[in-house]
Design goal:
CATH class of the largest domain: Mainly Beta
Distance between the termini: 21 Å
Shape: rod-shaped
Number of strands: 37
CATH architecture of the largest domain: Sandwich
Number of helices: 2
Number of domains: 3
Largest sheet: 10 strands, antiparallel
Structural class: mainly beta
CATH topology of the largest domain: Tick-borne Encephalitis virus Glycoprotein, domain 1
């Protein structure tokens, strides 16, 4: 009977408007939830009944209710709120942070899909006691190693808490040796502890394999109009038990072509042309082992570019890897840099002694002081030894249909068949957005729109409840006909 169907139609509306008001209530309840994505209920008509045909042959159809077609998520980006924590992160643009539940690692559901991986726009991460960057619920942020492929890793800062330091292997000097200096007899003593046996000296801080610092003093004496000798010395007590004063370091003789250095010697030699430009500078590495359990290390001193064809034997030594100084037997001894620009080289002109350049490639031990996170997701660490190092990189996930992700609570989403599999890449890669540190994405709930929908839903509910009341009255009137 159609009058009964009218009641069912009104009842279906009451049921589905109740679902709609629940969606609205959930949106308003989460209007201050970090990175919350609002939802909206949409409806469809159902159970269309054909009750006959009209005079033109068209069917007479009567609707018998409505249903909930979908609850669609609004995945538009919310506004950003600044914070004071560097690990508070927002994604400016497309993409989701990837987080993992380590307690469920390796577990899968009935379809074989992993159940330990989730996605979130809420970037309120903190470092836990184990060093992991985690969500408030303890899920671990995912990323990749610097320079590696996209193999995922759990982001853990604990392995980066300390910088072990690096032994010095190369020292670069640029000095000016005053041409008016006193000339010494090359056969006279060149005593590192007697300043009367040399003209000038300068020093640089070098580091051993444990990151401890030592002063390396370089001394120069003039032995001809355009020729100087030099030697390098360290505190004897730092290399030999019970010794005092300075101890000169020796280096191997300049090798013949294609051979390794052999006989140790000292001092070194510097020669200049009539314009004070460096014609010849060459030395092999000096081997030294500092006390305190450190391993031996080679230190090469480079005074810059020599402009003569055959004046720069230090070019025969190359840093094959960081901290690994090795003789390259494939090069010809005295392999010269033929550039005529020696702006960074040692010179010998009038005007007094000066140091124009001084650096070395070692560094001391240090502790991680603070981190920074760039737009492309690279986490960099600043250490107490003034070093800055890239530690790891955050990755983001994108989906073919992000609105089809399944909500899992706690600001988490999971991939579904409709959303498609996650596409993992670094921030600012492909169509992914960038990461903004010191900020959190806010809820995208529009309260004014929610209140408008609330009023419309309320009116719809009231109207349909009135239909149920009217149909009930009609049925009562129908039943009274027998009286």
């Amino acid at each position: 009977m159609s009058i009964t169907q009218a009641m069912y139609a009104g009842a279906s509306a009451l049921t589905n408007f109740s679902e709609s008001i629940t969606v609205i209530g959930n949106n308003l309840a989460n209007s201050n939830t970090t990175a919350f994505k609002a939802s909206q209920a949409s409806f469809e008509d159902v159970l269309i009944q054909t009750v006959g045909n009209n005079g033109s042959g068209n069917a007479n159809q009567v609707g018998t209710g409505m249903g909930l077609a979908a609850v669609q998520q609004n995945m538009t980006q919310g506004s950003f709120a600044p914070t004071v924590n560097v690990t508070d992160l927002s994604v400016d643009g497309r993409g989701f942070f990837v987080v993992k539940d380590l307690s469920a690692a390796g577990k899968t559901d009935s379809t074989g899909s992993p159940v330990d991986t989730f996605y979130t726009r809420a970037g309120n991460f903190r470092q836990n006691e184990q060093g992991y960057l985690v969500t408030p619920g303890g899920l671990v942020l995912q990323g990749k190693e610097i320079g590696s492929s996209m193999t995922p890793i759990d982001i853990n800062l604990k392995p980066f808490e300390r910088d072990a330091g690096l032994a010095t292997t190369l020292v670069n000097f640029g000095v000016n040796l005053d041409t008016s200096a006193t000339v010494f007899d090359p056969a006279a003593s060149f005593d590192p502890n007697d300043s009367a046996t040399y003209n000038f000296s300068t020093s640089v801080r070098v580091y051993d394999s444990l990151g401890a610092g030592h002063n390396l003093e370089v001394q120069f004496r003039k032995i001809g109009d355009s020729t100087w000798q030099w030697q390098a010395a360290v505190q004897a007590s730092e290399v030999t038990e019970g010794e005092t004063g300075l101890q000169v370091l020796t280096f191997g003789s300049v090798p013949a072509s294609g051979t390794a250095p052999t006989t140790p010697y000292t001092p070194g030699l510097l020669e200049f042309d009539d314009h004070g430009r460096l014609l010849l500078e060459g030395s092999t590495p000096m081997t030294v082992q500092f006390l305190g359990g450190t391993s031996s290390q080679d230190i090469l001193v480079d005074f810059g570019q020599a402009v003569d064809s055959g004046g720069d034997s230090t070019n025969d030594f190359v840093l094959k890897e960081e901290g690994d100084l090795a003789y390259d037997s494939t090069l010809t001894a005295w392999n010269v840099d033929t550039s005529t620009s020696n702006s960074s080289s040692t010179t010998s002109v009038f005007g007094g002694f000066s140091t124009t350049k001084q650096d070395q490639n070692g560094f001391p031990r240090g502790n991680l002081d603070k981190i920074s996170i760039s737009g492309d997701g690279i986490i960099s660490g600043s250490y107490t030894n003034s070093r800055t190092m890239e530690l790891c990189q955050i990755t983001l996930a994108d989906f073919d249909d992000e609105s089809a992700l399944s909500q899992k609570g706690s600001n988490l989403f999971a991939a579904t068949t409709a959303s498609g599999a996650a596409h993992i890449n670094v921030p600012e890669g492909d169509r992914l957005g960038s990461i903004v540190a010191y900020s959190l994405e806010q809820s995208n709930v529009d309260m004014s729109s929610e209140f408008v929908r609330m009023i419309a839903t309320q009116r719809g509910f009231q109207a349909n409840s009135r239909i149920v009341s009217v149909v009930d009255g009609m049925l009562e009137e129908l039943l009274s006909l027998k009286r």
